[in-house]
Design brief:
The chain is mainly beta. Helices cover 5% and strands 55% of the residues.
């Protein structure tokens, strides 16, 4: 049944494509908490991670994004819960946006796995600073006539809730989530206003064991704002649950190479390199650093479930 679900998601999502408001990442399998609050209770150890993405290197004012995720498992009332924190800093041209989200997740045990329900509440601060440019000529309206000023330096903060579901078993995971549920409006001025479009995310992954030390981890990651969409198709080859490498195809956008290693002290590092297949012929770099608290990786009889160590 799990394989059927995975294949259906894989095929259906491959039919629709491209990206929108929310920042883009390549190592999505290590960044689930920032797009799905239900993942906060999927980790059985306290975990902190940082991802830094430098997109389209070589362009002036190219996207630069950093995300910090923290998840903390909590047990009370005989059930498992999770608390999470995600901080995202996204810079693109005139825009410099910062989002902070606090997540809560409840875990419901099932026969072969667990189903997690999550909600997050936070805020997003959008800042816009720069000079408007309009070409000279009678065919163009002046900035003063159109916007009232040739410059803008404004910042607005809005409340930003999200919802999510996440299913996890020994060798399979799948998640659905909705970000910017209320589609909050960001009014910089009377003439400059945007809103955070509601974004829908879906992800699924499977662990295929080849033998005692080698595994293949295929996964898909899909997002849409109901106008444009984007899908990443990923496959990692992992050795001894500690060293991995693989490729990802972001449809109509990029081919990505990924490598990573997990050390015995709980530190994990990763790197992704995007080769653009679109008209934007610029490469992107993405760096990952993760630390898992109180994890004894030398023990093969681990008592927690994680999509990184299935």
């Amino acid at each position: 049944m799990k394989r059927i679900i995975f294949c259906i998601m894989f095929i259906c999502f491959a039919l629709i494509l491209r990206a929108q408001q929310d920042p883009q990442f390549s190592q999505n399998m290590f960044n689930i908490l920032s797009v799905n609050p239900a993942y906060a209770s999927a980790e059985k150890d306290m975990l902190v991670s940082v991802i830094n993405r430098q997109q389209w290197v070589g362009f002036d004012n190219a996207p630069l994004t950093t995300v910090v995720n923290l998840s903390v498992p909590v047990k009370f009332g005989g059930t498992s819960h999770g608390l999470g924190l995600s901080i995202v800093r996204d810079e693109l041209g005139f825009e410099k946006n910062t989002g902070v989200k606090f997540s809560y997740s409840y875990q419901n045990k099932m026969n072969n796995g667990s189903l997690h329900f999550g909600v997050s509440v936070g805020f997003q601060n959008n800042a816009l600073k720069g000079d408007w440019f309009v070409p000279e000529g009678n065919d163009f309206t002046s900035v003063q006539d159109d916007l009232g000023s040739a410059t803008i330096d404004e910042g607005k903060m809005v409340l930003d809730p999200s919802l999510g579901f996440f299913y996890l078993s020994d060798n399979f995971y799948a998640g659905l989530s909705v970000l910017h549920v209320t589609e909050p409006s960001v009014a910089y001025s009377e003439s400059v206003e945007i809103y955070l479009a509601r974004h829908y995310y879906a992800t699924a992954g499977y662990t295929l064991k080849l033998d005692e030390t080698w595994e293949v981890l295929p996964s898909v990651f899909y997002k849409t704002d109901a106008v444009v969409s984007q899908i990443d198709i990923n496959s990692l080859l992992r050795y001894n649950k500690k060293i991995w490498g693989g490729v990802s195809y972001r449809v109509d956008d990029a081919i990505v190479g990924m490598v990573g290693v997990l050390f015995n002290n709980g530190i994990q590092i990763g790197y992704a390199y995007d080769i653009s297949t679109s008209k934007i012929a610029k490469a992107s770099h993405e760096f990952l650093l993760t630390y898992r608290f109180n994890t004894k990786l030398e023990s093969r009889n681990q008592k927690y479930k994680s999509i990184r160590f299935l």
